[in-house]
Inverse folding.
């Protein structure tokens, strides 16, 4: 039996193949891109960002990629329409002039403020699976394993990118996310710790931001 | 030679003693003879019965005549046990104690007739309600669209049947002739005006809707058919039976124009669904709402309209009605989409009591924005992936979590940070953002709803108990005298011990306090 034949067997699973099948979205931080499989943010998947603090660059980390997404025309078959970015339950008010400075198209922003966590998860799922949102940022109070799986599936279905911001305590919980990052502020800047990366390996990036 | 060139009058006209028409009592509109007019008449002889809807039990319609309730019409179930029109209500009940008796309601009949006229507008641009049980359609202009007369006739007859109406139909070049032919029960179809005379001549007087007294005196004179009437001297006929009757004959034969009022349906939809008894089964209520939405769709379809707002009212026996309002991002009529929204809302909707009736009212209707579909039909991948548009997503979110919870953002040309942006509803028109000049000024990605007062240690602000290090600044922002919300502040970029980058300012008015206004996310 030749090696090719053996590899065609559906029972043989190769991690590197899966990861390289889909190109990532360049994050705008070459140092980070080099550590991520596919050379950037995994698309059609859930990304978790674990942090206990605001103002340490958690949004700046995403801004180049989001700016790219909000202006780029998405190629969904023949439908040529720039994608929307949904913000679900942000902790503060996203400030439009600053977003505009970061290059985000404001006319493609959707702010959703749900009443509770079940509405939050429902809204996120709707937005992800609608096929109109290219990215959905959410700040859930609690997110269990099942919830993260739902988000992951919805992101795959709608070809969207889910970004969940969670506290550091969520580190011990299992999650279906394709990528989990931990953000911590050190004296020299913000350290990005890749906890989990589907098809890649964990890494620590000091003073990225 | 001379005979050949002379205009030939229609055969019926030659037989009339006087060829001049009667002087007109009022000016009449004469339609330009571009399209040959053809009138389709629908006569609903069983309207009193059919207006009550169909039911499994035996039903009889009664009407008060000289102080006694007499049976007017019966359904087949009641007729089978021997109940006949003309019987007294008591006699009918003696024959069948379980018989459902309904008082005749002219208002209800009129409503049903209007609903039918509204529905018929899809077949013709000119629908007219003629009398209490007759509908007229001008179909001369619709024939091509509906694939010819036989096909149109078949469609109409099938659809009326499905709606539960037994109708007599006739087609003629004049509205009155069509009505008479329908009343005579002839499935007549006369397209040429020349054939009208011979067909009408044979009609008995009973189908003319003339008063019983006049018909009786005509019968006494040995006049039994329309043809007999036409043979009478016109002047004498007009004197004895009124100019109106002679006008009827002239109009039926097409000698005189016969203008009709066109039915115009109301532009707002409002329909009720009443139930025999109170219901609290949510599935059933949803089903009723769905039916109402379907008729709502038909209503709007006939007008090429859509609506953005809908209101369902659930009526209870003992308390005031509960209302459920729905909003859509753009005008639409699709029952499927409205039902989808209703489903989302209905999940969290509580009804205090059982429901006896449901009403659906539509908001202001507006012309629909037709959307171009894609020419490529085989583009499956694209259509599957894209389930709904942003507007549909927004209205689904609004339906579940509320109107003010889903917003879009825009910038405003304004130097004061708290006024430099605005929240916009997604369900309104497109947002208009002013593009700000980015001349090196820094703004934080997170904004606090209100500036938060910071404690101070001498000249330095404190955050979470430790001194802030000022990195950048000051940037002075001041004035706003035009709306009395003036500011005078020095803004700094600061960093706290934990590495958080903050946007703080020191007030230059009144007390020089420090405030936290934003966070550099």
């Amino acid at each position: 039996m030749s090696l090719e034949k053996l590899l065609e067997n559906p029972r043989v699973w190769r991690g590197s193949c899966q990861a390289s099948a889909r190109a990532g979205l360049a994050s705008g931080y070459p140092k980070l891109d080099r550590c991520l499989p596919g050379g950037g943010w995994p698309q059609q998947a859930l990304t978790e960002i674990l942090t206990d603090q605001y103002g340490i660059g958690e949004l700046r980390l995403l801004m180049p990629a989001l700016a790219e997404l909000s202006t780029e025309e998405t190629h969904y078959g023949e439908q040529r329409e720039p994608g929307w970015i949904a913000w679900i339950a942000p902790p503060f008010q996203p400030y439009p002039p600053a977003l505009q400075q970061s290059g985000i198209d404001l006319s493609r922003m959707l702010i959703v403020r749900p009443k509770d966590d079940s509405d939050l998860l429902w809204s996120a799922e709707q937005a992800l699976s609608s096929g109109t949102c290219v990215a959905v940022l959410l700040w859930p109070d609690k997110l269990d394993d099942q919830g993260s799986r739902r988000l992951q599936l919805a992101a795959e279905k709608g070809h969207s990118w889910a970004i969940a911001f969670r506290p550091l305590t969520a580190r011990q919980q299992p999650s279906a996310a394709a990528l989990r990052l931990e953000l911590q502020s050190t004296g020299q800047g913000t350290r990005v710790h890749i906890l989990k990366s589907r098809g890649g390996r964990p890494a620590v990036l000091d003073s990225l931001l | 030679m001379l005979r050949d060139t002379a205009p030939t009058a229609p055969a019926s006209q030659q037989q009339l003693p006087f060829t001049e028409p009667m002087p007109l009592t009022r000016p009449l509109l004469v339609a330009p003879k571009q399209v040959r007019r053809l009138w389709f008449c629908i006569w609903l002889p069983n309207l009193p019965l059919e207006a009550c809807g169909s039911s499994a039990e035996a039903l009889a319609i009664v009407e008060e005549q000289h102080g006694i309730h007499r049976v007017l019409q019966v359904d087949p179930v009641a007729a089978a046990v021997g109940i006949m029109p003309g019987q007294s209500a008591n006699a009918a009940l003696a024959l069948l104690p379980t018989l459902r008796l309904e008082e005749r309601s002219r208002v209800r009949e009129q409503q049903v007739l209007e609903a039918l006229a509204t529905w018929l507008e899809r077949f013709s641009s000119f629908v007219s309600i003629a009398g209490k049980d007759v509908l007229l359609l001008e179909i001369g202009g619709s024939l091509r669209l509906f694939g010819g007369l036989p096909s149109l006739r078949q469609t109409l007859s099938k659809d009326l049947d499905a709606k539960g109406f037994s109708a007599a139909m006739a087609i003629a070049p004049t509205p009155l002739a069509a009505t008479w032919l329908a009343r005579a029960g002839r499935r007549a179809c006369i397209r040429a005006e020349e054939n009208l005379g011979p067909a009408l001549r044979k009609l008995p007087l009973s189908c003319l809707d003339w008063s019983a007294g006049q018909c009786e005196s005509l019968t006494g004179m040995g006049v039994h058919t329309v043809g007999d009437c036409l043979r009478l001297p016109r002047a004498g006929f007009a004197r004895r039976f009124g100019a109106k009757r002679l006008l009827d004959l002239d109009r039926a034969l097409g000698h005189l124009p016969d203008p009709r009022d066109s039915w115009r349906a109301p532009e707002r939809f409002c329909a009720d669904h009443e139930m025999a008894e109170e219901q609290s089964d949510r599935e059933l209520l949803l089903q009723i709402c769905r039916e109402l939405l379907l008729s709502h769709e038909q209503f709007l379809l006939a007008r090429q309209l859509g609506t953005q707002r809908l209101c369902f009212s659930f009526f209870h026996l003992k308390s005031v009605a509960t209302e459920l309002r729905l909003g859509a991002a753009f005008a639409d009529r699709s029952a499927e989409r409205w039902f989808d929204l209703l489903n989302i809302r209905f999940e969290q909707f509580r009804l205090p009591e059982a429901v006896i009736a449901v009403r659906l009212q539509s908001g202001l209707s507006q012309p629909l924005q037709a959307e171009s579909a894609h020419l490529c039909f085989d583009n499956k991948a694209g259509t599957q992936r894209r389930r709904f548009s942003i507007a549909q997503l927004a209205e689904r979110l609004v339906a579940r979590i509320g109107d003010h919870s889903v917003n879009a953002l825009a910038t405003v040309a304004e130097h004061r940070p708290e006024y430099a942006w605005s929240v916009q509803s997604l369900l309104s028109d497109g947002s208009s953002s002013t593009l700000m000049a980015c001349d090196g000024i820094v703004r934080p990605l997170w904004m606090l709803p209100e500036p938060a007062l910071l404690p101070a240690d001498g000249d330095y602000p404190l955050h979470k108990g430790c001194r802030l290090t000022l990195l950048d600044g000051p940037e002075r922002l001041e004035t706003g005298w035009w709306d009395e919300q003036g500011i005078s502040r020095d803004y700094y970029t600061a960093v706290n011990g934990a590495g958080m980058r903050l946007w703080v300012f020191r007030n230059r008015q009144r007390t020089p306090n420090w405030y936290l206004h934003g966070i550099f996310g």
Q: What stands out?
A: The CA atoms of residues 338 and 476 of chain B lie 52 Å apart.
